[in-house]
């Protein structure tokens, strides 16, 4: 051992003892606790922490306020998310279909489909429908696109959505899965294998999101418009209060 | 060495502030104590949910969370605060300000570490890197290789904290991004197998870094019907992880779950829903001196 290392030795011993100190801790025992964050949690606005956080939020919040509190329509029956179809899903898909029909006048839009996971609230309650609620419903910046699919390709895609429990579709589609058998109708006509169908959907799905890998590389026409912005625009055009009652005729699944 | 970890039953009446009572009831007050607080998937929920008659009306909100955290910090000496990802996306704050207020507020609340959720890429990876300039907490991921991305200097595989002589190793695990997040958003992030990287990292924290507690911040999801990797799958295949604080599936666990690892040693998994509706708390007592056996711990249970 070199003198240098011999000089270091006492230091090494100290290090080993320090590490050994950790090892002396016995097996940990964990006591869990859970706090619900409700209005019963008192916020003491005199503390520096809360004051500084309020100061952080204030400029952002005041910009959002004006924008978000605009009333678009009146909701008479709650819009609820569910599968295989639901009031929230049908309402959303129908608005997307209407927007697509106007945005793509040169194409026949067969129907609109929205991925179930892309609806980010479980419910829109009754009363005034605010812009903020549509941001909550669809926070993602997804563009509305039209995808051209043959009947065969459409069947493969719809099989995926039906195996996933059923995604929201607009009113011109009827989709049925019995076991592994898939039947589709557009405007009451059975989907033909070699015909081309123009389906409106979020670019997220068209690019393979939500495991829709079968859509990757299929012809796509962009609209340059975000689906959320379109929902805001088309919801504001609602004639009368919104009251959607799904009758289960769009999507049927049985095993 | 495999340290056993014991889980006590959840305190009754969750949500009540039982701080003084809890502090007295815990064994190991003569040993060392650590309090871990955690959230996941808070999804830009800065304000409480609106008063719209919905299920979560008037719930949540960062100020209340901060008030609660502050109260706990005043009662406890050794506190760590973690988040398991999906900080971004869900309210207009994100659409307009791209995560800037969220990161600033987490820094103010005193978060110690967080991991990356899939939605944290929603503004693009450059945006995430830019917003993390406002962070005074660690961003950890052991299975996203970000060395060829703007996150290079912002993300570490793990972080180590010393609280009152308790050495806590914390690492992150993220979900597979392909098919979930558009490629242009996550850029050159390379996803690696969470189980392999998780075990490697936990072993390093346990053996080389001599951590007393190894914590995984996971955004893999609690569990799935198929064999997709989840917190439960990870726990079963793991060797040196004590705690998995999860996210992604927005699972409201009313109490933590224990799953036996590859060596039959229990791993504790917890997840607290989403949107900052809940704050999870785990008080961890280490009996001092190693003198007290687990039987004695049991005897001290209420």
Distance between the termini of chain B: 29 Å
How large is the share of residues in beta strands of chain B?
A: 15-25%
Q: Would you count the extended β strands of chain A for me?
A: 13
Strand order of the largest sheet of chain A: 4-11-7-12
Number of strands of chain B: 15
Largest sheet of chain A: 4 strands, mixed
CATH superfamily of chain B: Metallo-dependent phosphatases
Order of helices and strands of chain B: EHEHEHHEHEEEEEHEHEHEEEEH
The CATH class of chain B turns out to be: Alpha Beta
Q: Count of helices of chain B?
A: 9
Radius of gyration of chain B: 19 Å
Could you name the ranges of chain A where pLDDT drops below 50 across 5 or more consecutive residues?
8-22
Share of helix of chain A, binned? 25-40%
Strand composition percent of chain A? 25-35%
Strand order of the largest sheet of chain B: 7-5-4-3-2-15
Walkthrough of the structure:
The complex is a heterodimer of chains A (255) and B (302). Chain A has helices spanning 3-23, 48-68, 87-103, 131-137, 151-163, 203-206, 227-235, and strands at 29-36, 71-75, 79-80, 109-112, 123-124, 127-130, 143-150, 173-178, 181-186, 189-190, 196-202, 220-226, 251-254. Chain A has 255 residues and is of the alpha+beta class. Chain A has a 4-stranded mixed beta sheet with strand order 4-11-7-12. In chain A, helix 3 (87-103) packs across helix 7. The model of chain A is unreliable at 8-22 (pLDDT under 50). Chain B is of the alpha/beta class and 302 residues long. Chain B has a single domain (5-22, 30-301), classed as Purple Acid Phosphatase, chain A, domain 2 (4-Layer Sandwich). Chain B contains 9 helices and 15 strands. Classes of the chains: A alpha+beta (255), B alpha/beta (302). Chains A and B meet through helix 1, strand 1, helix 2, strand 5 and helix 4 of A and strand 1, helix 2, helix 3, helix 4 and strand 15 of B.
């Amino acid at each position: 051992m070199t003198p240098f290392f011999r000089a270091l030795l006492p230091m090494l011993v100290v290090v080993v003892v320090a590490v050994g100190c950790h090892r002396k801790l016995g097996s940990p025992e964990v006591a869990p606790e859970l706090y619900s964050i409700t209005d019963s949690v008192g916020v003491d606005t005199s503390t520096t922490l809360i004051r500084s956080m309020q100061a952080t939020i204030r400029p952002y919040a005041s910009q959002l306020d004006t924008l978000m509190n605009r009333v678009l329509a009146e909701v008479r029956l709650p819009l609820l998310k569910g599968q295989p179809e639901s009031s929230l899903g049908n309402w959303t898909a129908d608005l997307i279909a209407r927007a697509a029909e106007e945005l793509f006048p040169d194409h026949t839009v067969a129907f609109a489909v929205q991925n179930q996971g892309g609806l980010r609230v479980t419910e829109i309650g009754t009363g005034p429908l605010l812009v903020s609620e549509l941001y909550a419903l669809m926070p993602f910046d997804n563009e509305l696109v039209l995808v051209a699919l043959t009947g065969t390709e459409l069947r493969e895609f719809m099989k995926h959505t039906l195996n996933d429990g059923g995604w929201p579709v607009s009113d011109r589609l009827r989709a049925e899965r019995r076991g592994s058998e898939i039947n589709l109708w557009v405007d009451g006509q059975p989907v033909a294998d070699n015909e081309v169908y123009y389906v409106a959907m979020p670019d997220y799905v068209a690019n393979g999101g939500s495991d829709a890998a079968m859509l990757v590389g299929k012809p796509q026409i962009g609209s340059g418009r975000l689906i959320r912005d379109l929902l805001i625009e088309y919801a504001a055009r609602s004639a009368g209060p919104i009251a959607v009652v799904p009758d289960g005729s769009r999507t049927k699944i049985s095993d | 060495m495999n340290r056993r970890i014991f889980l006590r039953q959840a305190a009754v009446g969750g949500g009540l502030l039982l701080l003084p009572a809890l502090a007295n009831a815990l064994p190991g007050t003569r040993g060392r104590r650590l309090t871990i607080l955690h959230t996941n998937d808070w999804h830009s929920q800065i304000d409480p949910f609106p008063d719209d008659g919905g299920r979560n009306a008037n719930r949540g909100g960062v100020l209340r969370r901060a008030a609660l955290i502050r109260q706990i910090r005043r009662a406890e000496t050794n506190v760590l605060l973690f988040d398991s990802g999906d900080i971004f996306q869900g309210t207009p704050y994100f659409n307009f300000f791209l995560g800037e207020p969220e990161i600033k507020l987490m820094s103010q609340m005193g978060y110690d570490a967080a991991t990356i959720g899939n939605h944290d890429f929603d503004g693009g990876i450059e945006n995430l890197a830019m917003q993390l300039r406002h962070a005074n907490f660690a961003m950890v991921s052991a299975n996203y290789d970000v060395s060829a991305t703007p996150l290079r200097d912002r993300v570490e595989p793990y972080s180590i904290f010393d609280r009152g002589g308790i050495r806590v190793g914390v690492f992150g695990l993220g979900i597979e991004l392909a098919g979930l997040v558009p490629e242009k958003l996550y850029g050159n992030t390379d996803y690696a197998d969470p189980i392999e990287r998780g075990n490697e990292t936990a072993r390093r924290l346990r053996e080389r870094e001599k951590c007393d507690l190894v914590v995984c911040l996971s955004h893999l999801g609690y569990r799935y019907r198929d064999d997709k990797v989840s917190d439960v799958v990870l726990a079963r295949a793991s060797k040196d992880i004590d705690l998995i604080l999860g996210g992604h599936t927005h699972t409201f666990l009313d109490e933590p779950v224990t799953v036996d690892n590859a060596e039959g040693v229990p791993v504790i998994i917890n997840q607290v829903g989403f949107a900052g509706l809940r704050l999870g708390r785990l008080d961890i007592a280490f009996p001092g001196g190693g003198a007290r056996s687990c039987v004695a711990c049991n005897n001290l249970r209420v």
